[in-house]
From TrEMBL:
It catalyses: L-cysteine + L-glutamate + ATP = gamma-L-glutamyl-L-cysteine + ADP + phosphate + H(+). InterPro entries: GCL_type2/YbdK_subfam, GCS2, Gln_synth/guanido_kin_cat_dom, YbdK. HAMAP family: Glu_cys_ligase_2. Belongs to the glutamate--cysteine ligase type 2 family. YbdK subfamily. GO terms for biological process: modified amino acid biosynthetic process. This is Putative glutamate--cysteine ligase 2. PANTHER family: GLUTAMATE--CYSTEINE LIGASE 2-RELATED (PTHR36510:SF1).
């Protein structure tokens, strides 16, 4: 069975709920208190682009229940270390307040800031990245091409950034709109094979529009660190089980890619489907990957589950996934929950404080 790993980016905030530039301090505490490095990847805290955020990752797991437990443990571990710096972690894909964020004191971060100006300045955003293991790059590219029409559905399920710089945006995932300003971000055309993928990467590097391969920000890409496909389209999820759901669906899609190939829509159509997913999340219509037409979000999510049903059943994940999908559709993704708190009278700081509680809930 394919292994899964999940990377999550979190905001670092004060106990009162304001973003706080303490990543360097948190990382110093982490190096002193966390377990010694092992040969197994994952389990550590890592720097991100801004001082107001931190990243954690799970070790690779095949069992979905074990992965969900690792996600919770990683959140608890990260929050414990953040407390040593007087901060907490919040699984919000964007801060609701007006924030002047700060890049890490890092040569590469400074180079990105200098080259990309306002695009880099605005990038206080937090995503959820799923890694699924592959045999080789040929298999990985086959999975990447199969994922193309389904990535927007994954984004819709994860939407968790309805506010930006002190305003309500009208989007479930405004993070994806901000993230989409990078020159490599978003949906891609089919690659066909590993040689085609490598040709695109080499072409992007030769343009000089990105500094290195680490700035290949496709919705899904071949990992440069591990033998995995890395699916990067999702917002960080408010609820830990929603992150595990992302992982289960990605593995199901990876297995489905080994069957009959799907028709490949044009990238322009995928961009429109991705925008729709960012705009309405699971509250309105989504573009069906099967027909290219709008349908209620619940019906499109059901199409995704049906598409990966055999793979989920073989992995023993089907019953859990069906329950969790029903939970998300009933309870709402992070964006819906944040808007619900607003309706109850919560201001920006209170939204963040409630998100902290939800982030580390057992």
């Amino acid at each position: 069975m394919r292994t899964l790993g999940v990377e999550e980016e979190f905001l670092l905030v004060t106990p009162e709920g304001r973003p706080e530039p303490v990543a360097a301090t948190v990382l110093r505490h982490a190096s002193a208190v966390l377990h010694p490095p092992t040969d197994e990847p994952g389990g550590d805290l890592e720097k991100e682009f801004k001082q107001e955020q931190i990243e954690t990752s799970t070790p690779p797991r095949t069992d979905l229940a074990e992965l969900a437990a690792e996600i919770r443990a990683g959140r608890a571990r990260t929050d414990t270390v953040a407390r040593k710096a007087g901060a907490r972690i919040a699984a919000l894909a964007a801060a609701p307040q007006v924030v002047e964020s700060t890049v890490l004191p890092d040569r590469r971060a400074y180079a990105i800031r200098a080259e990309f100006g306002a695009t880099a300045r605005d990038q206080l955003t937090c995503g959820c990245h799923v890694h699924v293991s592959i045999a080789d790059e040929e298999e990985g590219v086959r999975i990447l091409d199969h994922l193309r029409p389904w990535n927007a559905v994954l984004l819709a399920l994860s939407g968790n950034s309805p506010s930006w710089q002190g305003t309500s945006t009208g989007y479930a995932s405004y993070r994806s709109q901000v993230w989409g300003r990078w020159p490599t971000a978003g949906p891609t055309a089919p690659f066909g094979d590993a040689a085609g993928y490598r040709a695109v990467i080499d072409g992007l590097l030769s343009t000089g529009a990105i500094l290195d391969e680490g700035m290949v920000y496709f919705d899904a890409r071949l990992s440069s660190r591990y033998p995995t496909v890395e699916v990067r389209v999702a917002d960080v999820c408010l609820d830990p089980d929603d992150a595990a759901l992302q992982a289960a669906l990605v593995r199901g899609l990876a297995e489905a890619a080994m069957g009959e190939p799907m028709a490949q829509p044009r990238t322009e159509l995928l961009r429109a489907a991705t925008w729709r997913a960012a705009r309405s999340g699971i509250s309105g219509d989504l573009v069906s990957p099967l027909t290219g037409k709008p349908l209620p979000a619940a019906e499109v999510v059901a199409q995704l589950v049906d598409h990966v049903r055999p793979a989920l059943a073989e992995a023993g994940d089907l019953e859990w996934v069906e329950r969790q999908v029903a939970t998300v559709l009933r309870r709402g993704n992070g964006a819906i929950q944040q808007l619900g708190w607003r309706a109850e009278g919560a201001d920006d700081d209170e939204v963040v404080r409630r998100a902290v509680d939800r982030t580390v809930a057992p």
